[in-house]
């Protein structure tokens, strides 16, 4: 396929995705995600917003040191300090990009920037010129492009390219546009901007109207050759264009959209699980491509068709996105070598310590659960691995409750900064008692917003996967935990959220993160 038909995938899970209320990633978690994205074949990885905080700067710098094949990108507003900070963070990168942005709609220029059009054009030129001092690979974004005056948008794009931008991003910042309108906008830019041939047109669509993927695909058909997206569609408000959806749409409908990407789609499901576990955002069951029901068939008519020919009701194979049919070959008699082999089959590459910890939890689970599914192993491994560097760790829990007990009591042990602490607490129910105990050992400044439980697999012995959302002084975090005991899973989820809250406390409030 010709170069002109190649669509670059720009992943912003660690930048725009982290702006989701409740999402927060520390340095080690960003490195894990970045390595997974690189293995997956992502072209550009936006690692963060270096000026936002010292923690974000260090995370971008760490990712820049680790990634060798993908381009590592840092976001910067059209300000000298932002651009210099991004340039400094990206110094170690083998391949680097600075992504600078400025609003171009009259609404944003008048209300937010309080700048004239001419001042904005000058700032576009100045910011791109300064970014070029650090790298030849500069991307410029016109924030709120889909609500901008077309004549002015053309002038801004032309100015950015003249100043040295080699990628120009036309974001639908507030998820306002619709496919035919967005297609026409990209076509208009290709026809009217005289130097547009010197840059790649990129698109960054938000999902406020549920059209982010449709708009991105329409833009590709109009000539855009870079799509900015996130794993699981993670992002602020209603989220961003979902990488897995846009990639599989291009792969599945080559008859209508003859374009290609460099994504190894067989890694999609694994990386969806990884991001879900790290951020604490569960994937809804009916989510396209990666939802639990995406390849499930309950209707008798559908099941009959599937038994005759899977293509009757499946337009892609489960294997194409990394799903394997669950089997029951693992059990309590399985050894560590077989367990390691199963992890490799599921796409995990873990160090000896991580394998040892996961194997211990697997054996504990096998003693309690008669049938071990691949989904069970995925849940416990993800739950174990992302906790490696937590300051607060779950140790043990005993709950006394029932109709003959006046007040449910939780006896809890946590390891906090290397020291094991124990307490007892009561509550209106077993979960309330548990969370009261956690608060006694940690802090009582957070407020519970959401508590959700769902089963990883079917059956009464299924592992529970719990999600909690905590809020403190306007900051929200989400945590996840998995265990065959729902209360233990709840403890793990709450502790996971607390660790994320510690990260949030260390980060300063970002100024203006929208792009």
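Sequence proposed for the structure above (515 residues):
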């Amino acid at each position: 396929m010709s170069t002109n038909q190649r669509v670059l995938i720009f992943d912003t899970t660690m930048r725009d995705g982290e702006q989701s209320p409740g999402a927060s990633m520390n340095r080690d978690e960003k490195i894990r995600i970045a390595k997974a994205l690189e293995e997956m074949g992502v072209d550009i990885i936006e690692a963060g917003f270096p000026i936002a905080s010292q923690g974000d700067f260090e995370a971008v710098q760490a990712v820049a040191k680790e990634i060798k094949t993908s381009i590592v990108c840092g976001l910067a507003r059209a300000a000298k300090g932002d651009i210099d900070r991004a340039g400094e963070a990206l110094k170690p990168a083998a391949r680097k990009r600075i992504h600078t942005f400025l609003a171009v709609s009259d609404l944003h220029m008048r209300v937010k920037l309080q700048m004239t059009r001419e001042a904005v054009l000058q700032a576009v030129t100045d910011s791109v010129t300064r970014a070029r001092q650090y790298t030849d690979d500069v991307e410029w974004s016109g924030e709120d492009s889909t609500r901008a005056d077309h004549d002015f948008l053309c002038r801004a794009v032309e100015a950015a390219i003249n100043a040295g931008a080699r990628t120009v991003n036309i974001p639908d910042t507030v998820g306002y546009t619709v496919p035919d309108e967005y297609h026409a906008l990209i076509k208009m830019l290709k026809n009217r901007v005289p130097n547009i041939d010197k840059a790649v047109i990129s698109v960054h669509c938000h999902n406020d109207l549920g059209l982010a993927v449709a708009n991105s695909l329409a833009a590709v058909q109009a000539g855009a050759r870079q799509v900015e997206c996130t794993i699981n569609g993670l992002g602020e408000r209603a989220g961003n264009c979902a990488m897995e959806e846009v990639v599989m749409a291009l792969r599945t409908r080559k008859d209508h959209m003859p374009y290609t990407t460099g994504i190894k789609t067989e890694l999609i499901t694994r990386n969806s699980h990884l991001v879900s576990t790290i951020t604490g955002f569960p994937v809804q069951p009916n989510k396209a491509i990666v939802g639990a029901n995406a390849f499930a068939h309950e209707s008798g008519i559908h099941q009959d068709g599937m038994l005759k020919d899977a293509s009757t009701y499946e337009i892609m194979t489960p294997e194409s996105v990394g799903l394997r049919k669950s089997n029951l070959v693992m059990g309590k008699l399985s050894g560590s070598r077989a367990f390691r082999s199963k992890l490799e089959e599921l796409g995990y590459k873990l160090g000896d310590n991580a394998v040892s910890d996961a194997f211990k939890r697997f054996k504990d689970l096998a003693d309690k659960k008669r049938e071990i599914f691949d989904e069970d192993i995925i849940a416990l491994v993800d739950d174990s691995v992302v906790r490696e560097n937590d300051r607060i760790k779950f140790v043990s829990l005993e709950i006394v409750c029932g109709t003959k007990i006046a007040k449910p009591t939780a006896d809890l042990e946590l390891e906090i900064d290397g020291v094991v602490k124990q307490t007892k607490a009561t509550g209106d129910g077993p979960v309330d008692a548990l969370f009261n105990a956690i608060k006694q050992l940690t802090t009582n400044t957070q407020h519970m917003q959401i508590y959700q439980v769902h089963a990883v697999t079917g059956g009464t012995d299924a592992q529970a996967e719990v999600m909690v959302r905590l809020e403190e002084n306007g900051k929200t975090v989400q945590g996840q935990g998995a265990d065959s005991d729902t209360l233990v899973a709840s403890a793990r989820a709450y502790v996971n959220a607390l660790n994320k809250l510690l990260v949030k406390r260390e980060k300063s409030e970002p100024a203006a993160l929208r792009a």
